[in-house]
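Handoff note, outgoing to incoming analyst
You'll be picking up this chain. Sequence as last confirmed:
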Amino acid sequence: MNSTIFSRLFYQQVRNYTYKPVKRVSLPPASTLPHKPDPKVYSSLRHDLKSRILATGPIPVAAYMKQVLTNPSAGYYMTSGDVFGSKGDFITSPEIGQIFGEMIAAWCVNEWSKFGRPAPFQLVELGPGKGTMMRDVLRVFDQLNVSRGLAVQMVEMSEHLSQVQADLLCKSSTVFTDKPYYRSGVTANGTRIYWYRQLDDVPDGFAIVLAHEFFDALPIHKFIKQNNVWKEVLIDVEPKSDNKFRFIVSKSETPMLRLFLNNYADLVEERTHIEVSFDTEAIIRQIGTRFEANGGFGLVVDYGHLGDKGDTFRAFKNHKLHDPLVEPGSADLTADVDFRLLNRFCEDTAQITTIGPTSQREFLEAAGAQERLNILVSSNTISEEDRGRLSDGLKMLIDPEQMGERFKFFGLYPKALESFIKQQS
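Most recent structure output, in case you need it:
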């Protein structure tokens, strides 16, 4: 990543705005949002999972994960209230401070400029959380006067999270039942925002695709090597128990294991445990098709590894590790992104070329995060408390012992531009 490019773009055009730091806003009043589900809801989901297993046999981790996170009546993201931030179960980088989103925005404008600033164009965010990052990105776009011709497409399955995002980003929003999008709104500066349940529904057009902590929440299949034979890890009901689940290993080769070994056997030669998201593969193929047909580029930001880890499937509740098989629906389920496998998915499309992954620390430093902090804290309009909060926030984002090395940035571009993109990186 070229720090000179970032610095020139960011400081010539952005240094004179937003000296006063942007406050991290809270969710709407609790009365307007679903509360965390009653324990009876957890019990219902647990009962449904148990009934399915008893009727059809042990299920893949992916099937369990999908139900726990996105079941319409009891899924974690579908029914929980404030799952993000200090009052939720985990905190994300955009919630720590505005600088993170501003650096993403600067990168987007820089890369968009390489394409000749095509318009109209769209920002497509997969899994927008509370909408905090998009708010910071749009603020920079507005300040740089590059919002003309822009439409924002939010891919969000959860209707209650879409309401949270709309309340943060829009003057007003409307729900629809007869259009490809189920909600739309407009920002104070006139940018239109639309909400979709899946990427397939987003209209064609040049797209900047952002996926921040999105792929880690997609369902995974877990495969393990025992006695030199690959098997799939499944979830079963604990014997002699009405309330517990357990991990078991398949007795024979499963269809998804065969599919993986047929296509990616070379990736497991030196491994004994691998986690595979076929949903990720499908979405990467969709992105590749869009890039080839309409142009665009993307940025994946997530915690992950380079193919050197095995078992990363876990749950978080109240900022602490939680047993993923206990009280399904009450905690977030996640698995580290395998960037080696993600890169392979991109290569196999023959439509995407990639840059990275690079660490969050390297990306933010190259983008000028420290210089941006210096500008913010030098203002005489902010309090010492705000200066400390901004400084502590950036340290958390770039410190190798905190988030700086754990999170990776991974760029996606049209394959046709591979030679040009590699030269520019």
